[in-house]
User: Which sequence fits this backbone?
């Protein structure tokens, strides 16, 4: 059975990605990153999802990106804005986050003799982050295949992005068909400790719209109903 | 004054790289990574070097790569071998280490509005690690320029590798001419808490040979004299 490292944030997309990796018969190793994000309920959600989808192993690695600051997701002095209406990269962007996460996934994969990494990036219903695009993933893949001992030894590392061109509607429909209980997941950028979502941030609005378009009941508890 | 993030391990190469960045008139921000390396004296050395070379700021970021294991530098169950005589990547290779370190440097650089990163990789007198080669650095640079908000906004990120094609002899001669006190630095893979070097591992042997060829007195305290 082939192994895969799956980046698991606790959100809707990464849960769906994990479920998809399982349907492809991978033995899944879930990697969650405690980057000192303000939304601590994400990591609890990641543990629930990992357990419910029977991963082989889960690791939660700490790396304190709040030290660097520069993002509303790590710095309480920067307000999380309501939905991103401007055509620009919002303050919820965390500098180099996906690069750091994929690098850590690459390290774990190498020690597991695993050549497949899954990440739930999405370039359709998303917040405009540069590190969610296919050209970025392609460049990371090329770099990974030069960076590692495993690649030098002739193994090809693949970064799987099954959701990259899917709408949130399609992601939700697929996840439901794979039996995911989305009530375990947390998308909100500023959910409280118990996972109560604000309902108004970019992530909440994209999630709400997705459930609405998929004609599926949204199991999320929102603080603000629209 | 332009800013630069300089990866500083506490070894000879990164200290020289920092001194070179200063000669290029950069305001230097030293980034050291506590990856739970067995050689803890490295981080003390990094602090001494940062202070002696008057960096603007130093950050020491923790990310526990020992969790993943797979390297003699993080796992006490794997012996550090004597000098690498085989033509293969040795067990001292740490999976994806430079990729993780450069990713963290990229994150900090972005929050500092800084577009220049220095790393002391060397592809001449080194241990054969894949992530020390120019083609790897080129691929990382390309990826970094797609990954980040700063790049999307039109700023070009450059990874500077001033030592990449230098012999250890040249590195030491340059460092001496720039006034570096190499007694502060630690190269040994298994130095003790006080920085006492084993004298026989790959890193020690490359260092000894470099001082010898540069005709400079080696200030290192070795446990084993050859």
Assistant:
């Amino acid at each position: 059975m082939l192994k895969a490292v799956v980046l698991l944030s606790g959100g809707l997309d990464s849960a769906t990605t994990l479920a998809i990796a399982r349907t492809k018969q991978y033995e899944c190793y879930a990697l969650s990153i405690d980057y000192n994000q303000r939304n601590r309920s994400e990591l609890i959600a990641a543990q629930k999802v990992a357990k419910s989808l029977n991963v082989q192993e889960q690791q939660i690695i700490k790396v304190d990106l709040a030290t660097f600051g520069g993002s509303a997701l790590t710095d309480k002095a920067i307000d999380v804005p309501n939905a991103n209406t401007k055509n620009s990269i919002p303050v919820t962007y965390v500098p180099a986050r996906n690069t750091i996460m994929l690098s850590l996934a690459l390290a774990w994969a190498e020690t597991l003799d695993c050549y497949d990494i899954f990440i739930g990036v999405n370039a359709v219903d998303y917040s405009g982050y540069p590190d969610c695009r296919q050209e970025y993933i392609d460049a990371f893949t090329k770099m990974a295949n030069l960076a590692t001992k495993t690649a030098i030894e002739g193994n090809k590392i693949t970064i799987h992005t099954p959701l990259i061109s899917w709408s949130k509607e399609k992601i939700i429909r697929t996840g439901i068909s794979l039996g995911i209980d989305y009530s375990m997941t947390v998308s909100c950028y500023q959910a409280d400790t118990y996972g109560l979502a604000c309902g108004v941030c970019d992530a909440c609005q994209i999630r709400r719209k997705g459930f609405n378009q998929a004609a599926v009941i949204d199991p999320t508890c929102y603080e603000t109903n629209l």
In short: Residues 97-111 of chain B form the longest helix (15 residues). Chain B is about 35% helix and 10% strand.
